[in-house]
Structure formats: structure tokens, C-alpha cells
Design a protein that fits this description.
Oligomer: single chain
Distance between the termini: 47 Å
CATH topology: Porin
Shape: globular
Largest sheet: 15 strands, antiparallel
């Protein structure tokens, strides 16, 4: 059985680990003044063709950092209530967790983020995830999925030019394909590989999730 993990790009995700690729400065946006944040999100899921959907009931965002300039940063994500469908008993889903997580249905991860402009001038966020190893147990067997790559979401609030202490993010997919996948002519994708050491067939994964980030102080979203 194959499975994968929901990554909230959501929010956005953490600069302590992956270097962001080079970006065209004209496509960047900025959130000034704020330097740190926390956040949370409701239920969401990750979908890939030919594999079970992994769903989590909630997300907590911690250790959020906004770097100088207000365009890049990092964060830690903790997903709870994570499960995959049980093919033998639909009433008892399979519990899924990241490899080092203390609880059987918790996924801990993070990554880096970059505030960008996507098509038609829409404010967005590009998240580069940490490699995350997810273990789902069924009938005493561990089914392991490695998730890596990038995911693009939209900033739904505040609007460009507006000030707020909150930022709302939305990630959506049609099937297993993210609705926004291109930035500065480059395609960004979230990839899952099921198998020992992440050597399974790479499969595109689509993330459906939302998150609300609360900043340490109000800031203005500048999109020009």
C-alpha cells in the first residue's frame, strides 16, 4: 500500500534547511514589520494518483520566522489526527506519523517559504519542504513514504497594500495536481516516493489545506 503526507505548505514552511532557488526580484512580494509568527489550520489532505489520500484533522504552525526584507522565512509544522483509508475496514482508518513523532497520528515537518506573485498578479507563497518520512501501519507492517519538493499556494488575506496582523493562506489541487505550479517560468511540484529509502516511483502530490498565521506585529503586504 502506498501513502503520503499532507504538507501544509501552508503556511509556509522553514528556512533552516533548504536553500531557495534564485528568483526574479520583480515577482517577489513583501510583508514588512513582522519578524515572527505562529498559526493554525483546519483539516486538509494530500492526494496522489494511485495512492491512498492522507488526511489530517488540524495543523499547528510554530517557530515562524520572517527574514529581513519580509520576503523569505521558515517555520515548523505539526499535523495531528493523520490517517489513511483502511482497505479492510473503512470504519478504522490507518494511523500515520512522521518517523520520529511520539504519537501514532502526528506528522512533524517544516521548510522554507518565499512570498511571490503568481499569475495575474495574485499574491502567493512558494514553500520548499523538508524531506519527511511518513510511516503508516497496517496489520503490523510499516508502509513508508518520503515527501519532498515544493508547493505553491495563494495569500487570500490581507490584500495587496493592506495592513494586518494575520495572513491567510490557501493551497488547492485538482486531483493530484496543484492549481498553481509555475513561477518565473519554472514548474514546482510536491513529490512522494513510497519504498525503502524513498526509492519508489516518484508521484506528483496535490495539497488541499488552509492556514491562518498570526504575526508578532501588524504588517503591510506590498506586491509591487
Amino acid at each position: 500500500m502506498r501513502n503520503k503526507t499532507m504538507l501544509l505548505a501552508l503556511a509556509v514552511a522553514s528556512a533552516a534547511l533548504f536553500a531557495l532557488p534564485a528568483f526574479a526580484s520583480g515577482e517577489e512580494i513583501h510583508f514588512d514589520t513582522a519578524t515572527s509568527f505562529t498559526g493554525s489550520g483546519p483539516a486538509g489532505n494530500l492526494v496522489a494518483t494511485g495512492e491512498p489520500t492522507i488526511s489530517c484533522t488540524s495543523t499547528d504552525v510554530t517557530n515562524g520566522v520572517i527574514n529581513a526584507g519580509g520576503t523569505t522565512g521558515s517555520m515548523t509544522l505539526d499535523f495531528t489526527g493523520c490517517t489513511a483509508p483502511n482497505p479492510f475496514d473503512p470504519n478504522h482508518p490507518i494511523l500515520c506519523k512522521s518517523k520520529e513523532a511520539p504519537l501514532s497520528n502526528t506528522i512533524a515537518t517544516g521548510g522554507t517559504f518565499h512570498l511571490i506573485t503568481i499569475k495575474s498578479g495574485i499574491p502567493g507563497v512558494l514553500v520548499t519542504t523538508n524531506t519527511t518520512e511518513i510511516v503508516c501501519q497496517l496489520l503490523g507492517f510499516d508502509f513508508v513514504t518520503h515527501v519532498t519538493g515544493n508547493v505553491i499556494g495563494t495569500v487570500t488575506s490581507p490584500a495587496c497594500g493592506a495592513s494586518s496582523k494575520e495572513m491567510k493562506l490557501s493551497f488547492s489541487a485538482t486531483g493530484s495536481t496543484q492549481n498553481h505550479i509555475e513561477y518565473t517560468g519554472t514548474t514546482y511540484d510536491l513529490i512522494s516516493r513510497t519504498g525503502v529509502g524513498g526509492t519508489g516511483e516518484p508521484r506528483t502530490a496535490g495539497l488541499n489545506a488552509t492556514a491562518t498565521l498570526t504575526m508578532n506585529t501588524a504588517g503591510t503586504l506590498t506586491c509591487t
